[in-house]
C-alpha cells in the first residue's frame, strides 16, 4: 500500500502533488485537435453545466470561461436540483455533465432527462467506460488517472483544464490560449514547492471550529472548493462565500476567533477583494490570504499569507486551489483523521 502511495502518507497528498503532471497530461490531450466537436458551441441558445460536489465547483469556474470566451448564456446547477426543477430544456441546449467517476446517480439521471428532451449532452469524466461516458452523446476525458482519496483534488484541476480547453476550442486564436494554459503545470509545481509553508500556516488553525472562505470572480468557486475540502476531511465547519456577498450575512459571524481564508490573486476584482478584507479586519477577523508572491499590500493585511506565482487572471484557479487543498490536508492529518476515507463520505455516490 505504501508503495502505491509513492512515499506519501496518504493518497490525497500524493494526488495533490500529481497535479502538475495530470493537468499536463490532460492539456496534451486537448492541444491536438482530435477531439473537435461536430457542432459550433456558439450556436446553442444556452449551455447548462450539471454536476455534484467538487465537480460542481469545476463547473462554476467553467461557467465564467464559457460566458467570457463563447458568449453563450450559461447556467450551472447541482444535478440533484436540476432534476426536480422545471427547467425548460430542448434541442437548442447543450448540457455538459461533469463527473469524475461518471457514476454519480444525480448527474447521470439529470443528463439523461435533458437528453430525452432533445438536448445534446457532453460528459466530462475521468473513468472511461463509466455509465455517463456511455450515456452521453460525446465524452471529454480528464486523463487524471485513478483518484483514490475520497476528497477530489487532481480530478478537479483536470476538469478545469478540459473546461478551459473547451471554452477556447473554437476561437480563432485558440492556440494562444492553449499556449498560456500549457504554462500552468510548471507554475503548479512552484506552488507545491511551497507546501511546507502552507503546512506551517495550517498547523496554527487546527483548533478552530469554524472558518470562512471568500473569493470573487474565479476565486469564488475556489473558495467554495477550499471550504468543501476542509469540511470533508477535517470535519471543521467551513463556509465558502462570494466575498462581495459577505456583507449580506456572513459578516455577522466575524469576530477575533474567526479565520477568514481569502483568495485574492491580482485580477479584475483584486481591489474589491481588498475592500472586503478591510471589512473583515474591522470586525477583528483573522485573515489568511492566498495571493501573488510579493504582494506586500495583501501581505500587510493578512495574519498569514501564502504566495503563488503571478498568473493570467483566468488561469488563477489552477494555482489558488492548491494551497487550499494542502491547508485542509495538513489540518486533517494533524488531527489524526482518516484523510483518504473520511467518515460518512463515499468516493462515488450511486444513490439519488
Ligand atoms: C462524492 C465525492 C466527492 C465528489 C462527488 C461528485 O460526494 O466524495 O469528492 O466531488 O461525489 O463525484 P463525481 O464522481 O460525480 O465527480
From TrEMBL:
E.C. numbers: 2.6.1.16
GO MF term list: carbohydrate derivative binding; glutamine-fructose-6-phosphate transaminase (isomerizing) activity
Keyword Repeat: yes
Keywords in alphabetical order: Aminotransferase, Cytoplasm, Glutamine amidotransferase, Repeat, Transferase
Cytoplasm found in the keyword field: yes
Domain SIS residues, every copy: 37-177, 201-342
Protein name: Glutamine--fructose-6-phosphate aminotransferase [isomerizing]
Species annotation: Hydrogenobacter hydrogenophilus
Name of the gene this protein is made from: glmS
Amino acid at each position: 500500500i505504501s508503495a502505491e502511495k509513492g512515499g506519501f502518507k496518504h493518497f490525497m497528498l500524493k494526488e495533490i502533488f500529481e497535479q502538475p503532471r495530470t493537468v499536463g497530461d490532460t492539456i496534451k490531450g486537448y492541444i491536438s485537435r482530435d477531439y473537435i466537436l461536430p457542432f459550433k458551441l456558439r450556436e446553442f441558445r444556452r449551455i447548462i453545466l450539471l454536476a455534484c460536489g467538487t465537480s460542481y465547483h469545476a463547473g462554476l469556474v467553467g461557467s465564467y470561461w464559457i460566458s467570457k470566451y463563447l458568449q453563450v448564456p450559461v447556467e450551472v446547477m447541482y444535478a440533484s436540483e436540476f432534476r426536480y426543477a422545471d427547467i425548460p430544456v430542448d434541442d437548442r441546449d447543450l448540457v455538459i455533465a461533469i463527473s469524475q467517476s461518471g457514476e454519480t446517480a444525480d448527474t447521470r439521471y439529470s443528463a439523461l432527462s435533458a437528453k430525452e428532451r432533445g438536448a445534446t449532452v457532453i460528459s466530462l469524466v475521468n473513468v472511461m467506460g463509466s455509465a455517463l461516458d456511455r450515456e452521453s452523446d460525446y465524452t471529454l476525458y480528464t486523463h487524471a488517472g485513478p483518484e483514490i482519496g475520497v476528497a477530489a483534488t487532481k480530478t478537479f484541476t483536470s476538469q478545469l483544464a478540459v473546461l478551459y480547453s473547451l471554452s477556447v476550442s473554437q476561437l480563432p486564436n485558440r492556440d494562444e490560449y492553449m499556449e498560456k494554459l500549457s504554462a500552468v503545470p510548471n507554475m503548479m509545481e512552484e506552488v507545491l514547492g511551497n507546501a511546507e509553508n502552507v503546512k506551517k500556516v495550517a498547523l496554527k488553525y487546527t483548533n478552530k471550529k469554524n472558518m470562512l472562505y471568500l473569493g470573487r470572480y474565479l476565486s469564488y468557486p475556489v473558495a467554495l472548493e477550499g471550504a468543501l475540502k476542509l469540511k470533508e476531511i477535517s470535519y471543521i465547519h467551513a463556509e465558502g462565500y462570494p466575498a462581495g456577498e459577505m456583507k449580506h450575512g456572513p459578516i455577522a459571524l466575524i469576530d477575533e476567533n474567526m479565520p477568514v481564508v481569502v483568495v485574492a490573486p491580482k485580477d479584475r476584482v483584486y481591489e474589491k477583494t481588498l475592500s472586503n478584507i478591510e471589512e473583515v479586519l474591522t470586525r477583528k477577523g483573522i485573515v489568511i490570504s492566498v495571493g501573488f508572491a510579493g504582494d506586500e499590500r495583501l501581505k500587510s493585511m493578512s495574519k498569514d499569507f501564502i504566495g503563488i506565482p503571478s498568473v493570467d487572471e483566468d488561469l488563477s484557479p489552477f494555482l489558488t486551489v492548491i494551497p487550499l487543498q494542502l491547508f485542509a490536508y495538513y489540518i486533517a492529518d494533524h488531527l489524526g483523521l482518516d484523510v483518504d476515507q473520511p467518515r460518512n463520505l463515499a468516493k462515488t455516490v450511486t444513490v439519488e
